[in-house]
Amino acid sequence: SPHHSPSTSARSNPPTFSMALSxxxxxxxxxxxxxDLSQADFGRLELELAEVEMPGLMACRAEFGPSQPFxxxxxxxxxxxTIQTAVLIETLTALxxxxxxxxxxxxxxxxxxxxxxxxxxxxxxxxxxxTLEEYWWCTERxxxxxxxxxxxxxxxxGGDATLLIHEGVKAEEEFERSGKVPDPASTDNPEFKIxxxxxxxxxxxxxxxxxxxxxxxxxxxxxxxxGVKRLYQxxxxxxxxxxxxxxxxxxxxxxxxxxxxxxxxxxDGLMRATDVMIAGKVAVVCGYGDVxxxxxxxxxxxxxxxxxxxxxxxxxxxxxMEGIQILTLEDVVSDADIFVTTTGNKDIIMVDHMRxxxxxxxxxxxxxxxxxxxxxxxxxxxxxKRITIKPQTDRWVFPETNTGIIVLAEGRLMNLGCAxxxxxxxxxxxxxxxxxxxxxxxxxKATGKYEKKVYVLPxxxxxxxxxxxxxxxxxxxxxxxxxxxxxxxxxxxGPYKPAAYRY
Amino acid sequence: SPHHSPSTSARSNPPTFSMALSxxxxxxxxxxxxxDLSQADFGRLELELAEVEMPGLMACRAEFGPSQPFxxxxxxxxxxxTIQTAVLIETLTALxxxxxxxxxxxxxxxxxxxxxxxxxxxxxxxxxxxTLEEYWWCTERxxxxxxxxxxxxxxxxGGDATLLIHEGVKAEEEFERSGKVPDPASTDNPEFKIxxxxxxxxxxxxxxxxxxxxxxxxxxxxxxxxGVKRLYQxxxxxxxxxxxxxxxxxxxxxxxxxxxxxxxxxxDGLMRATDVMIAGKVAVVCGYGDVxxxxxxxxxxxxxxxxxxxxxxxxxxxxxMEGIQILTLEDVVSDADIFVTTTGNKDIIMVDHMRxxxxxxxxxxxxxxxxxxxxxxxxxxxxxKRITIKPQTDRWVFPETNTGIIVLAEGRLMNLGCAxxxxxxxxxxxxxxxxxxxxxxxxxKATGKYEKKVYVLPxxxxxxxxxxxxxxxxxxxxxxxxxxxxxxxxxxxGPYKPAAYRY
Amino acid sequence: SPHHSPSTSARSNPPTFSMALSxxxxxxxxxxxxxDLSQADFGRLELELAEVEMPGLMACRAEFGPSQPFxxxxxxxxxxxTIQTAVLIETLTALxxxxxxxxxxxxxxxxxxxxxxxxxxxxxxxxxxxTLEEYWWCTERxxxxxxxxxxxxxxxxGGDATLLIHEGVKAEEEFERSGKVPDPASTDNPEFKIxxxxxxxxxxxxxxxxxxxxxxxxxxxxxxxxGVKRLYQxxxxxxxxxxxxxxxxxxxxxxxxxxxxxxxxxxDGLMRATDVMIAGKVAVVCGYGDVxxxxxxxxxxxxxxxxxxxxxxxxxxxxxMEGIQILTLEDVVSDADIFVTTTGNKDIIMVDHMRxxxxxxxxxxxxxxxxxxxxxxxxxxxxxKRITIKPQTDRWVFPETNTGIIVLAEGRLMNLGCAxxxxxxxxxxxxxxxxxxxxxxxxxKATGKYEKKVYVLPxxxxxxxxxxxxxxxxxxxxxxxxxxxxxxxxxxxGPYKPAAYRY
Amino acid sequence: SPHHSPSTSARSNPPTFSMALSxxxxxxxxxxxxxDLSQADFGRLELELAEVEMPGLMACRAEFGPSQPFxxxxxxxxxxxTIQTAVLIETLTALxxxxxxxxxxxxxxxxxxxxxxxxxxxxxxxxxxxTLEEYWWCTERxxxxxxxxxxxxxxxxGGDATLLIHEGVKAEEEFERSGKVPDPASTDNPEFKIxxxxxxxxxxxxxxxxxxxxxxxxxxxxxxxxGVKRLYQxxxxxxxxxxxxxxxxxxxxxxxxxxxxxxxxxxDGLMRATDVMIAGKVAVVCGYGDVxxxxxxxxxxxxxxxxxxxxxxxxxxxxxMEGIQILTLEDVVSDADIFVTTTGNKDIIMVDHMRxxxxxxxxxxxxxxxxxxxxxxxxxxxxxKRITIKPQTDRWVFPETNTGIIVLAEGRLMNLGCAxxxxxxxxxxxxxxxxxxxxxxxxxKATGKYEKKVYVLPxxxxxxxxxxxxxxxxxxxxxxxxxxxxxxxxxxxGPYKPAAYRY
Lengths: 503, 503, 503, 503
Description:
Pathway (chains A, B, C, D): Amino-acid biosynthesis; L-homocysteine biosynthesis; L-homocysteine from S-adenosyl-L-homocysteine: step 1/1
Binding site for substrate (chains A, B, C, D): 82, 157, 223, 253, 257
Strand content of chain A: 5-15%
CATH topology of the largest domain in chain A: Rossmann fold
CATH superfamily of the largest domain in chain A: Adenosylhomocysteinase-like
Structural class of chain A: alpha/beta
Low-confidence stretches of chain A: 1-19
Radius of gyration of chain A: 23 Å
Distance between the termini of chain A: 36 Å
Oligomer: homotetramer
Number of domains of chain A: 2
Shape of chain A: globular
GO molecular function, one term (chains A, B, C, D): adenosylhomocysteinase activity
Number of strands of chain A: 17
Largest sheet of chain A: 9 strands, mixed
CATH class of the largest domain in chain A: Alpha Beta
Mean pLDDT of chain A: 94
Number of helices of chain A: 20
Largest interface: C-D, 66 and 65 residues
Protein name (chains A, B, C, D): Adenosylhomocysteinase
Strand order of the largest sheet of chain A: 1-2-5-4-3-6-7-8-17
């Protein structure tokens, strides 16, 4: 599974393992597995605060709640189990859905959010600090709705839920064809070993498990760049098994969540993890896409001198226009104080870079997968010493120099690992797109409107998401007059821009 | 011609006129009409400075000059006759073209630039402060290559050259059909009166003049949003007469020229026209597209408190995320000190707004056409008094209050009317796209690759334009490794982004 | 004691109390009282990180450590017991001092820092979340060096240690004069009740206790604006009992710690306490001194629309020049989302303001004392309901509207209550001034150089503090040539500016 | 006169000269010498615009005009003869003064402003592009009120008027003592040769001319850092001949004019002189005082990458906290695109630096005197070629490399030489201080309040200046309550800060 390799890391995992986890049940019989259900009250309080900051989701409840459009729909979500996600989940349930949920990152769960949802609203399998085995166990639990099979709809973030089904179906077909069961030993990739183990074990109990899921599935809505990239690859290779809506490329997602969300959460993560003064420091941001732009802006505004590395000359020129220097990592590796990867690519900061860094240079990743930083190279570096300052903040000391670097969240999403991710308001934009995408898939489930392809939401829905968030900020929009509307050939009610408009 | 109405304004023109302008000739026999040929030396000096700032154009000369790809091509350009455009013209001639040029705005010519080009390189018909009759006379001169007919290629900005040919063809066909000649009296639009007069007079000497032009024409490359909008409207209505390349929507044009160009030139125009302190002022920017974003950024950075008006909720939400208030013009008309229109729409600031403004509020437009500000309403306001402080800076005093407002460049493009437009470096990005578009049209003239439609340049050429501008700024790009390239399924040499990527 | 009233708050305290706290001892016999000594290892790890970020303090250790200038000196400190302060303490001990310490704010202690210091270096009496009785007990413990009396030197922050001695001496003199003991019932001020109780109890055991302290005391160095104000008031009224060095007004303190420290720690506190998205919000900063400037800059850069309230027209004009609106609190109380007090004055945000705020408006204080926000008015508001979201984050719901506001750190210093205060680097500037001030007082203890007055450090020491922090940031200073030095009449080695220079 | 050497430059002047300039007279008999009196109407229009932007001066007219406090006072001013200064002059005359004026820089006069004042209000001797002989002739004319002697008051900027009197008195005393007349040949400094010539010629007609001036003089108010430095040097050496008020160090001058004025006028000058795109460029600012801070902020906001050179570690650390790199000029001389000197020192950019710069690097000075850039070294560099692009914009080409640099305003104040200096609003702050200082000197002329020393205005007047500028910007100040006032021991009406407060 080449497209899976990115998220692979067996670092903290033993070579063999067993799935000895047990599902718990609420008084009402709903399944869950969370860290501490007693945190539910605290989660509920923060959930209530978040609701005030998430006008898009609350507007969905007001508009669609009465008609219960998700009545009868089973939704499985694999997406950071945070307070904001909790408001999304309860929006889905308020619209009639039944929901099962897991996190899409081993460090991103907020345990009080998980507790509140598990107690009050949906089946949750998620806690902060899962092992990779636990992570995939949670994913599998999330997708498994019991004897009746799988979900009707998936909310995915990074594509792991989608991947498990695709890999499961592939294995089942192979098994049917050749009797061959998946062999975890067939791969060097330790995370993929786990996936194969789960599928193999699944095969033993039901050789059509994932195919049944696929057959039931109406579609998936995918949250993030990385997951979207996987979907387009599958679309191109003709292996995509169900329709997909690319939520990431809604303007109100990628140009808000990725940009302004990271502008908020990068310094938040840095501060919570290290308390380091950003002003005066030299900070290297690898990549100047939306995420990189947000990170660079935040660091610059906090008083750092920012240097960007880029492969794309257009993005590089954008950085230059903002006064940001474009260099290669090699040029600056010994001079910088803070390194942030945002590329969506792999092998960005290698152990050989890390060896050359200043003492206590901070190295972190805010891209979806954890392979931007060569954690494997670091962990296996001869004589390297790991000193855990606190969870998700480790100092790694090299034997030659006796100097160290500080790695956040073990190379995973530092804003979710070290802080609380993106704030509610911007997630409300993203998640309102999710709700709209799920509604659209569900409404059209029988019409054939959506084929096994990747779709983006139409412009007018994108604009609607934005409009739902203006009132909270006291904005007053101007209305086109009829004459103006005719003059520029744009309807008074929009959409206001051509599809290719870049914002 | 409804799509033409935007640029119409007969304000400073008498109802009747005659084309008594005479073409002059250089020693070598090349035609021209400029203000003062003796400014050619000064123009040449500034041209030489600009060349150092326009690495994209100079790279085109180096790469393509030797093979003379434009050998035999006639290029007519209607685009602000500035120093930067002069470097574009001499790039086209360096690649083998013969060139005729006019400006696309009555105030935008830099007379020393026109003089240098007229003397040294191409036929120029342009001066700062044309009347509208003069303007259209220049346009017609620019398109008329003598007996042999018209140009092979057009570089257009706003679409007036394209419009003249389309209207001419329409009139000739009508004349052939019905014997009817265009009647300037048939329209209330004073500028369109002039267009019809020119076409009528042309008909008298050659009833196939514009059709011959059309037949020869290989295509047009269009520079700006407004012209592009016209082209798409013609494409939709099936009336487009030749292929068009939309240069405006190259990323390296619209996300650079429109954004960073205006960020530079808006304060420049304000300062040269009024010397007003921007810090501390309340500035209203109407529209938050690329141009509006550049203007708002410039004003904010200069210490103004910026308020934006928008119809589009997405752009409005972007402004809010930058701490910019979104209100309607009515909300703030009495409180603000500076008003800038950037919408591409009409009727943005009406005389009724202007009456309510603070004494000496500054009102200006940086959109392509001059109908964003209700100049007609202002000029015909009973008892209004116009006091010209200096050219392109007028104070208009209302009789009721005896307070005045300051209008820049008579409501036309203030950055070109009051300052020198966009700086060379960013124009090098735009104009390198123009050169590439012209090369492409010319290369494919016989292949049928381009139909009578509107095209954008492919991503890899857009990236090439950016790449040509990095060295000047000392940037060092990172190279993808082969493994990374495979992992993200992007060629090592690009293009690096999907077509819909928003930057 | 009118100058004490600011810090008064009996809110969470019963009217009567007893000092039933017990001192603990390390194996080596050093006294302490901290929350959890087992956190010492964690504290040590963070201390080691902080050392790398505090080049000024480390330079002091390198320069002065060998000569042990504090040999024989007893230093008592009343200053937020954080990781950064721990590095200060260990710098003092590295220079030969014996140290006792307490925090100057009930919420500002970092328990792991306190633990590390208590275990390894000095006598500490501090924990996060002290009651006011505990707070003053700690202060008294910090000042009491046993039979031998008090400290030789005090490091004070806000002036509570200084106040206790002054009040103690006053009471002893009154007692000697009239036999009258301090009567806690004589004051309405609940915190001052506690102070009087402590002094009264002290009188019972030693009627010269505070006078002996005063006699021994060489001087105090004071950290912050508020404490400095108290000292100048005492200087003016002739009641100051020992020399004082005003560290706050070193440029490298007030223009760095107050400004850049708050620019860092205000958003940090907001994010940790509420996770609220700052972008798009309306934020009101009360006061535009150094602290207010830092707060406003941080909020603006994070994308908020900032409004400042000011009494001082000069500071107001500075804000306007940065595009920040100046209004009164009344003008904006119903529209804003975030309120921050930075004034050093009292009664800034009253309960009557809070009642009119938007639901979930955030109200916090970053000024030294907790009387900027009318917590008393809030707590005693009829029917008000307090919901503790988490420690230091409370939602207060008004009965009329059933809407609530969110108050951080109970109105106390939110950056220390909700986050970890200022980062190490900027504290290194402040604390290097402290070390230098303490060295200066101690060196001159017998020379009479310092009278019972308030002094600032000379410019060249201020510049030295800055210079010690440049290397860490990779800066390379320019050197004056001899000719330049003569031309501007400034020594090559500085000081480079006249005393009144404002930076 | 060692302290004079800074402003010396004989570059464009012949070694010998004669004062063959003739004074002209208005119909009313007032003397003047300006470039073109017919520009008076244009000047008047811009003056009227400026009045709206200068609320402080207009408030002075309203408050003090009726009582004519300057009745009988002769004021001589040596200060850039711009539109803003014209409003100052007419404020002085509106308060009853008679005024004579010259510019304090050979390039800084705006000829239309000079014309309007010469025609309507005061005796003016100033034009843009004076030779140094003309410059000193103008200064002498400005000080010479005819038979009755000199002025009662001086408004000085840089101290040249003050210097002429001091040098004159010195020469007269020497002549009285020894019969020795000043010998222009005694100095190598070409500008000082001119000064000595003027004084020598004066001696011939009246051997007590400058002493009579001195005796009449009530005092001087000095505008700028450089002039103030001279005054303090004279105060220290006991040679100051009359009282002086240091206007520069009013907060509302140095922290506004120097900072926000330059933030406005530096990019303005760069754009008008070169049209260069600032975004993406590397800009070096020499010096990070108030002027340097303003310049660096402007360049950074325009998208340049800014590097600062500093001698002062405190200012350097301030730059670092804003993300600005601190290097030496040598470190960056070959990499930067724009160089700005702001130091008030000499020999900052030497010809040896200039030789190493990139082709078309821009070199300019915004400090008061023209000796920051080694113009002499440049002009005398063997084989160097000067190409004047336009007035005040020269390209200097070095023979070895055939590459050139662009020098603005011949190394003099580029914002006044290439643009129009600081905008009206911020000059209103500065000049309101001037009016208040002049009023104060005049009011106390007979009281002995002011000795032959340098004074700053008291804080409450500084605050008043600020207050006069708030209304124009729509600000609403908060009022202290009586309780608050007592609590912080600050009067309700201010002053609000201690004298040493740094803002």
